[in-house]
Amino acid sequence: MSRMEKLTSAEADEAITAIEGWVREDEKWMQGSFRFAAFLDAIAFVGRVADAAEEMNHHPFIAIDYKKVTLRLTTWSAGGLTELDMQSAERYNAIYRSFKG
């Protein structure tokens, strides 16, 4: 399966379950939230997420609420969730772990 091919509902559910901290919002979206000790840590995280998103050419919706960052993912061209969304979520989790030291 291509990483840009839309996953079935069952495939998406199974994949998301394996990614710590991420939940499926609906048929098209998944979401992860990240908490930080300080506002500037949250902003630094967003900068690193942006760098990774550019490298992958796959960009999340980003919401910053003081020390909490929420990321939402979908693949517009596929009409829903794909393997690329799962890979992105895993990468963002790895970035977050680097902040937790």
From TrEMBL:
The UniProt record lists the keyword Plastid: no
NCBIfam families from the UniProt entry: PRK00823.1-2 (NF002017)
Family per record: Belongs to the pterin-4-alpha-carbinolamine dehydratase family.
Catalytic activity, reaction form: (4aS,6R)-4a-hydroxy-L-erythro-5,6,7,8-tetrahydrobiopterin = (6R)-L-erythro-6,7-dihydrobiopterin + H2O
Source species of the chain: Paenibacillus solisilvae
Superkingdom of source: Bacteria
Protein name, per record: 4a-hydroxytetrahydrobiopterin dehydratase
InterPro entries: PCD_sf, Pterin_deHydtase
